[in-house]
Amino acid sequence: MVAVGGTPGQPFLGPTPAALELPRRPSPRLLVPAASLAIAMRLSTVYPVSTPGGWHLVGTALDRMFDPHRDEPFLLATGDRVRLVASTEAGPGPIEPLELLPAEPALPALHVDEPGLLDLVVDGGRRGQAHNGMAQSGPVDAASALLANALVGNPAGTPLIESTLLGPQLTALRPLVVAAAGAGLALEIDGEPVGSRTVALRAGMRLRLGPAGGGARGYLAVAGGIASDAFLGSVSVDLRGGVGRPLRAGDVLGLAREAAPTARLSAQPVAPDTARPIRLVRGPQYTDEAAAALVSGSFQVTTGDRMGIRLGGPPVPGGELLSESPPLGALQVTPSGMPIILLADRLRMAGYAKPAIVHPADLGRCAQLRPGSTVRFAFDPVTVPSWYIEP
């Protein structure tokens, strides 16, 4: 029977026979192929999309559990009964990403001359879909996205561009009002740096989000927002879910709406505070031993993406448990002792201990961590606000 969903449309089936019970791998694989049938503990599952995972692979499913092109994207729902049968047929091919950007926007605004390393259109995130395994998505550094939108007079959650490490080069196709924020990237207009402030553009002016050296991500907002189609209530790209795609050379981005001139605003740049520890609060599997290990020394960022930040350093007591939904900013620890900070595109089900959660006010700092960055932690005595834990 389907107990719950993990990634988009991922069924967790149980219970499996006791003879098939296996612990998870000590450390999750960086990528499990889509359609993989896997077992761990007393459950079995099918990975609908390619994603990290620590289960044991035993086969391949022939039916797509999730397809964003279908009227009903999810093949199974909680409570459905499933029977597995053997077959020698080939599994399904990869999912073709669902296109969200209009092919011919009604209000052409920006031409993508050259994309950055990873440029995504995001809004406030895909809410209310955790039971279907959909990632929250939206901006990884929500505070910087909020600031960029505020500088051009947009409401919170208006679609804008998130770029990682190296941003795009764009040409304005009409008069526009733009602004950028985020420690990782800085806005240039016709080759001149402009900082975090409201800028009025004429058609033909060129924009560039270049590396600023202080972080990993930056946000470019346009008054009126970026035009994009919604999937399950959000225009945010979900790369592992096959929803949307990064910007490509030749894309034409449109305005979501005409925008009246906005007041000229500016924001004081915030210098990266690498000396201050990232604050933690107690997580669902808090132990004094894990807390002591987390504050005992420094950690280094080994890899990171929109799903999470992997850290190397002193081993932290952790381990596996029955899969449960992790909150934003959860610091989970695999049986190998490796901590992972979970971000906006985290899996909706995770089976590792979470002794701590990053304080909401420090999540933006985590979003700006680059490989090689040094991280220290300190526990904060305050209680996490009730609005922080997602229902």
Structure write-up:
6% of the residues lie in helices and 31% in strands. With 391 residues, the protein is mostly beta strands. The protein has three domains: 1-93, Cyclophilin (Beta Barrel); 108-254, no CATH class; 278-379, Cyclophilin (Beta Barrel). The longest helix has 10 residues, at 142-151. It is globular. The relative contact order is 0.16.
Structural class: mainly beta
| Model regions low in confidence, pLDDT < 50 over at least 5 residues | 385-391
Strand composition percent:
25-35%
Output mean pLDDT: 90
Q: Can you summarize the main beta sheet?
A: 9 strands, mixed
Number of helices: 3
How many β-strand runs? 27
Count of discrete structural domains: 3
Helix content, binned percent: under 10%
Order of helical and strand elements: EEEEEEEEEHEEEEEEEEEEHEEEEEEHEE
Quaternary structure classification: single chain
**Euclidean distance between termini CA atoms:** 23 Å
C-alpha Rg (nearest Å): 22 Å
Tell the overall outline.
globular
Strand and helix layout:
Blueprint lengths: L1 E4 L5 E3 L15 E4 L3 E5 L2 E5 L3 E3 L2 E5 L47 E7 L4 E4 L19 H10 L8 E5 L4 E4 L3 E6 L3 E5 L2 E2 L5 E3 L4 E6 L5 E6 L29 E3 L23 E5 L5 H7 L4 E6 L3 E5 L7 E5 L5 E4 L5 E4 L7 E9 L4 H5 L6 E2 L1 E3 L12
Short description:
It contains 3 helices and 27 strands.
Features:
mainly beta, Cyclophilin, 9-stranded mixed β-sheet, 6-stranded antiparallel β-sheet, 3 helices, globular, disordered C terminus
